Amino acid sequence: MASADSTWTTPEGDKSRHLPLADLEHKLAALPPAPKDRGRVVAIFARPGSNQRTPLEEATLTAAKGVPGDRWSHPRPEKGDPKPSQMLATMQAGVAEMIANGQPMGLFGDNLYLDLDLSEGNLPLGTRVKVGGALLEVTPEEHNGCLKFKARFGSDALRLVSRKETRDQNLRGIYFMVVEDGPVKVGDAVEVVRG
Question: Domain 4-193 adopts which CATH fold?
Answer without folding.
Answer: M1 Pyruvate Kinase; Domain 3 (2.40.33)
